[in-house]
Amino acid sequence: MKKMKCLLLVLGLGIVLISSLAAAKELRVGIATEPWDLDPAIRTDTGSGYLIKNIYDPLIELDQNNEPTTEFALCKSWEWKNNAQTIVLSLRKGVRFHNGTDFTAADVKYNIDWQLDPENTAPNKGLLGPIKSVKIIDDYTLEVNFTAPYTGALQTWSRALDGIVPEGAHGKRSEEKGVAGFAGTDLSRSPIGTGPFKFVDWVSGAHITLEKFNDYWVKGVPAMDKVVFEFIKNPAAMEAALISGSIHIVDKVPFRDFATIKRMPNLVTKRIPGIQTQLIYINLSAPPFGISKDQIGDKKAIEKAYNLRKFLFHAIDREKIADKIFYGMATIQYGPWYADSDWTSPKLKKMTLHDPELAKTYLAKAGYPKGGLSFRMMATNAQWFVDVSTVIQEQLRPYGVTVEVIPIDKSAFFDTMYETVDWDTGMEDWGLNNFLAISWLYSGYYRNNHNHNHWHHAAPDLKKEYHESVPGHAEFCAMYDKANVEPNEQKRKEMVWKMEEMVTEDVIQIDMMFLDNLHAWRDTVKGYGDGLNSQGEINLKFITEFTGP
Amino acid sequence: MGTYILKRLLLAVPTLVVASMVIFLLIHIAPGGPVRVMLGPMQDEVLVAKLRHQLGLDLPLYQQYLRWAGKALHGDLGISVTIQRGASVMSLIVQRLSVTLEVAFLSIVVALLIAVSTGILSALRQNRLPDHIARVIALLGVSIPNFFLGIMLILLFGVYFLKPWGAGGFVPLRESIGGNLIRMLLPAIALGTAYSAIVMRMMRSAMLDVMGQDYVRTARAMGIGWASIVRKDIIKNALIPVVTVMGNAIGYLLGGSIVTETVFRLPGVGNLIITGVFRRDFPVIQGIVLTIVVVRIVVNLIVDLLYSYLDPRIRYGRGE
Amino acid sequence: MIDAAMNKDQLEETKLGMRPHRGLLEEFWHNFKRNKLSLVGGVIVVLFFILGFLAPLLTPCNPVKQFDALRGEHNPLPPLSRSKEGHLFLLGSDKFGRDILARALYGTRTLLELAVGAIAIAFVLGVFMGAVAGYTKGSWLDELIMRAVDIMLSFPTLVLAIALLGAFGIGKTHIGPIVLSNMVKIMVVIAITYSPRFARLMRGVVLQEMTEDYVAASKVAGASGGRIITREVFVNTMPPIMVQASLMMATTVLTSSSLSFLGLGLQPPRPSLGIMLNEARDFLFLGAWWYAIVPGVFISLVILGFNLLGDGLRDSLDPRQARRVQR
Q1: Cys staple from A362: which of A310, A541, C83, C312, with CB 3.0 to 4.6 Å?
Q2: With contacts defined as CB-CB under 8 Å, which chain C residues touch A405?
Q3: Whole-prediction pTM value?
């Protein structure tokens, strides 16, 4: 009888021990925004990106210098052929999807074809490049042919193909509810990937739970059994949770609290220059910063709009904004690209940005020597956008210029920007995760329709709801077309410089600064810092050990 | 009594119908529809037209209303357009309604506990110190906005005392009952205080009224102690006006919970409607307003019936 | 006589006007002057109206001016600190370096403007509807108005206000050629939500007055219906209405500051006490208590003032309510 009791006791203790260990292996990550959609081919928001990073594997990954790498990627190696018009990919063997099926080249082809299909209105279709055909050579070899040389494929694919799904997994877009292009696919709420974590459940407004995928193709990953992504909108609550230990990783630390968090015991912080550019979109198809339909060709109106844009450019004190709002943890831009990159025009690097005297001169030239100008700035009512706009509003007041700040929801922001010309300026940010200067110039300025700044030129393809705006767009597009197919890198670089100068000196858009990514996590999570890159992603694959509860 | 109940029920139905029409129209008066959702930089005009058609926004107004109302009766409040693409509004509400109701219920509990006890105490010790203190606190309770009270509570417990539950946040019941309840403490106090102050004053004045009645004086003259009188007649009669205030309470609490949920970051319907307003998710806004109105009408009905039960004048019919 | 179809609201409210005879007004003023509570309330209210009205004179600086912090420091700064330019922040600064005292003064101004405007509109709307309903008691007009009032009252006030603001959007609204500023929009929204209460009360009180002898006497004397209402009845219905208006001011201030706290009120950079409280939340853990306490105290005192005033008015109106019970 005694032996029995002893055995039971040991068993009981064992169970308690094991279950406490099991409980201890649950990692909790705090993210500020609830994801919209877990289908990598249709998601566009950052929140979803955090989950997709860990549920799926990408075809190709980028390392900390934003160079293509095969670490944690499904592609083993690649070979360019045919003057960068063909790329042959060698894929990994022995990789399984969460549903048990094997990963093969057919899956990759499905992923690419599905996005290319216009019926599916995939938002990242443009990032795939000018694909002519996708051929399966064998189960683990894929050949992709482009209609023109596309050397940036691996960089842009790191975003476009950041989650490989099994063949057929997208299923049908739900037709009866919602709309094609907005409605989810089968994957939206039930993702299936090859990543280290399997999807368990999603409680709206609360959290998403993932669990360890035992068949993951990298041994030792993941280091925990369960991960819970909690949605904590308010930064203060997020910090409180991190400090008390109920959250182990946060997606970002508010700028104002970084210094305090850094000093705290049991917490590790890391600050990495990021890819989020803070910019001011300018409506070039309506006064005051652009011209209206009946002002097409009106030299005086064009001149006035130009002067007002130059005023705006030189009146804004970017350093002050970086200091006030971002506590100095930002990198000022001298043009669209990174200031320290050799893809940024040397001429622009020497530019003077904030110049009150120059600003006053332009304002006077535009016909407002004593002020009296008034315009609107819409700003997404999340994070710091309204704050930045408020600082700008106050910076322009001494010139006699009145800015009306309009806080607006993000989707309504883009609504207004694309659908109407009833706006003047907009303050937002953009994550440059396509990593090529020329790519950003494309996304930001190229299209003659659906252009951020309504910068259009007269052309047969211009839709009737838009009209020709301030000059230069046609030249810009022509320059881009040439640069895009230019094989010589130095020549291409110089063309990129010219394009940057064009959009900056004409103030088509104002790109102010890149923000640093501020990360913080508990010291019981080891190795997490190695996976952090400029994109601010939460990559749990790099965690080597989790000793928490 | 039977006719009274019937009459009240019948009255509730057209109220509900017209209220639903108002809710429906509300969203459609203003320009700028829920048409565009962010697709990133690539948007398409064909898609916009498709969306309009599929959401039924190109139909005449009355048809849209009938469609909407019909679906609502089946529990289908539409699909969220921007908050969670493709999620049914009903499911979003159901996930969160329990949180809001929990806060509201706990607020009532906290409020009644404080109010009834201090109300009785105040009446019994009328014009003495406890009475004055209670009345001052009641006045403050009604005057301090619940969001300011909430913030002060956070300052006290979250910042000064560094309690992890003092900064807001929510732990589901199934995860931890203790964790859930402790985080409800501050929101319940913040939300319940104003209501508690109102009830306390009602209780006090109702009790004073009853205490001044002849039959009570007679009992006192006969030497019956306060204790037994207070327990039976006084409290029961004094509760009548308290019950009547309850009906309004639900309205106040549902509205007030919107603010409380924002302050303490609770995932309730209050928080959701605010998100809905900022994200222009009209189906969500409509769904939540409808839910709140339905809850309120139902509660009012129950309270009216309860009141009629308590008030003998109505219970035994009018003019008989 | 108690109409069983009336509910608890109306019961409570008609109790107020239960002593109808001429001289009500005189009695009312007599009681009011004696009542300590209402005096205190009145003083507070008047004080804040003065603060708001004289804000441009009393303010230490422009409320939207953003000062820079000294090197090594960062806004928000505590009370009695100085900015880089040497400006003294009497009650501290906000996250942009704006003077909190200045903003609180202007915030009070806008708050009171909003509340007075909203109540005025609600008063006019509600009293008119209620008077019409009361005078035409029993008719289809009466029924229609009261049903509409019922329906409006089935919406909790804050919810209705939020839904209306959600529909019209935040910021200026354009209805054809008319541009409604945000302030006007909020005023109208709040007025719409509160007018039913006025309507209901007015109707009840009018009905009560109509049963008075002097009304019957007037009718016999041949005075026309309109004159009955406008002269005697109207004057005598005013006291309970005024009490209600004062109490409503308190709730209106609460509702409008709640709306701006939620971000649905006035837009930046207009100073608003509710928005200041909202902004303060992010800085609580950095120890910026003044950011929340100053606007919160301002709002609470204003509401307190109106509550005291309203309570006092109600007590003066019907001394029976304030009657002391002998033990």
Answers
A1: A310
A2: 267-269
A3: 0.79
